[in-house]
Amino acid sequence: MVAPPPRDQAPYPLCDDPFRVFKAHTSETLSPDMVLRPGHSSGTIRLDEFRVQTMTRLGGTWRANREAAGDILERVHARGVVTVGELLREVDAPDVRIYRTIAYMLKLDLLRLVRA
Question: Domain locations in the chain?
Fold first, then answer.
């Protein structure tokens, strides 16, 4: 049996969580009320291409699995726009992994934020 790591401590001692490390440098923090739409590179085919490239594969174990990531993209594509909160409620993955996956998808232009 393994106990969970203490709060604000990396789960792997030699590999810190980049989302925690660079938290102070973010331009925005994702929240449930933020609205997403498909990006220019959107689609599960593009997602699969990114998942096999060395640079974009990094941190894959900290994001949602392929099925949940594909589910996120399919929901956004089907509806046109969707809130982060809706995805948190509907996608079968831990919230922290959904947030990380959405941030990854935003960076790769698979998703885009809708600005008010």
Answer: 33-113
